[in-house]
Amino acid sequence: MLNPQNIDFNQVPKKFCDGAIGAFGKDFFSFGMTSGNNLDAYATTPQTLKSISIWMAELVTSYEKQFGEIDMKQPEIQSPIQISDLKQ
Description:
- By secondary structure, this protein is α+β, with helices and mostly antiparallel strands.
- The chain has one helix and three strands, in the order βββα.
- It has one helix at about 45-65; strands at about 20-25, 30-35, 40-45.
- It has a three-stranded antiparallel β-sheet.
- A hairpin with a 2-residue loop joins strand 2 (about 30-35) and strand 3 (about 40-45).
- The model has no long low-confidence stretch (mean pLDDT about 85).
């Protein structure tokens, strides 16, 4: 089994996660994390997903203590392609 304390996160390849989707049944959770047009899908037990959610909540709390509350408003990013750019 992989020991998390022996992982050097500077050496691990990373993807930028820009979204997530998921579903659940009685005995499992399934979820996917998106990166551009790619989707990495996972299935796990309710116990494992709950432990992940607790860990993530603790990370967010620590982040906000250090950097302030995360602004959850949708960013107003203008698409690089505008309707006026399209030939009519």
